[in-house]
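Good day; I would like, with your permission, to put a structural problem before you. A protein sequence and the structure tokens that stand for its backbone fold form the material at issue. Thank you for your consideration; the sequence and its tokens are set out here:
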Amino acid sequence: MNPVTKEQIRRYRLHTHHLDTWYPKKDILSAAGACGFQNSPPGAWENALHNRVAECTLQDMKELLEVEKTLLQTWSFRGAPVVFPASESDAFLSALIPESDEPWIYTRGIQLALDYLRMSFEEALGLLLQVMPKMDGEVLVSKTSLDQTLAQWMRPLLPEDKRELWDEPSMYGNPDKQTVGGAVVSFLLRPCAFMGLVVFGKREGISPSFTSYKRWTGHSPEGTGDPGRKLARKYLHCFGPSTAGGFGEWLGCSPAQAGRIWNTVADEIEPVSLAGKERFILTEDRELLFSPPEPERELHLLGGHDPYLGLQDRQVILEDRTRQKQIWQTVSNPGAVLWHGEITGMWKARKKGKGLDVEVTLWDGMDGQKKGIENLVEEYVLFQKMKLNQITFLT
């Protein structure tokens, strides 16, 4: 096996993630389709695209997502809201549909409600699928409204003895807004999204709206070839060298499903060695990995959920395990300061009045980059159509 260094991997991934230079607007779909943009918390996808195509404004992004509809948002890998090219829905949606005994992604938590209702997963999903065609004629504003409306549509299909339990307050939190039935629907929306039955529509104020894929795009999901193969190739191109286990963690799926999809590219991959451990790359990416282009951009200010940070081998971009815990948290990840693809600090922005207070924490040897960071902060604030109150640097 040919050994590969962390520096080579960082330079390779900066390129495959469209972070090695500033890309023009014509490359927006390529950037978004590389591995998708997670949009949790809301706005994460906009920050990710801004970091790749700086001339793309918030209004441009809204047009692409809500008017032209060349970009699409719905639940995808790890059950998270993801923005990706509508033309690649097969890779980001139908590829995630499990086979045989493989569990659905992001549905493990449903069991508490199903036990309470004395229902099987298959029974609950089957009932929801019976009512989902109604979404072809509906636009529902807010996630709560979506959950509860679908739960009400399902209610008449339930056995008489389960309807009272269905209407009980949710055991998952927000019992004043969500019923047990609404909670069941919330988990099952991921399978519905993978099947192309529900997508995000226009934002109405602070709330998203939801409708069917067909109503939103004018057609059912399309695609040719093996969608799983397309998805595995996307992952390996962006996050290689990697393993089937890393792929499964990125998807949030079972080892069985990850292994099955991984095997679709078995004839396209080859092993390399990273610190003595076997990893795999697409054979066609070999030259790019071992001779990656010199990045034109040295400094980055990435949002906390940028795709570049969604890797499983975190030590490649940040060796210090204590600092890893500061960057990758359970909730509310801070942004990351990158120097040549390696994390060298973190940053946070807080709204105060009509402006932003930005706090940047720099680690070893980064004091000389303060001016460059200030420039990136100012560009970010302008992108957000706000004013900069102050920048505070901590070490």
Notes: Residues 94-217 form one domain. The mean pLDDT is 96. DSSP finds 17 helices and 14 strands in the chain.
